[in-house]
Amino acid sequence: MGSGAELGPMGEFHVQVAALRSDRSDVESYARVLSETLGDALPSGMVEVERRRTLADRVGGRAGQPVALRIVTENRRLELSVGKHGGLKAEIHQAVRGVVIKRQEVDVEEWLTALADELTQLAARDAVARDALSRLFGS
To answer: Which pLDDT value is given to residue 16?
Structure first.
């Protein structure tokens, strides 16, 4: 782990993630941005996308429509899913050794703040992720 000065640009994750707030309103948009953009910069398995596949999707060889997005870290799982009545449902799950011990429903803004915090923490402890995220966000 480097010096505090090294982490200065990582604070930019909060600014970059805030951009998601402005024009993303469905799971599909978040899934596309986070899995295609961040997915390449993050450790394997950290971004999970759950999809609903219709028969037409299966026959057509399509992946299906994203219905849930999970960012999995050592102690938390950030989950964004389609709400019962449309819109987004955001949850933060606390985990101990992979077992969820607490689930908290939050608003999307709080979820995005938690995502920025997780990216900052990841960058602080993983040089490869820090370099990839810095390139991605131009920090």
So the answer is: 56
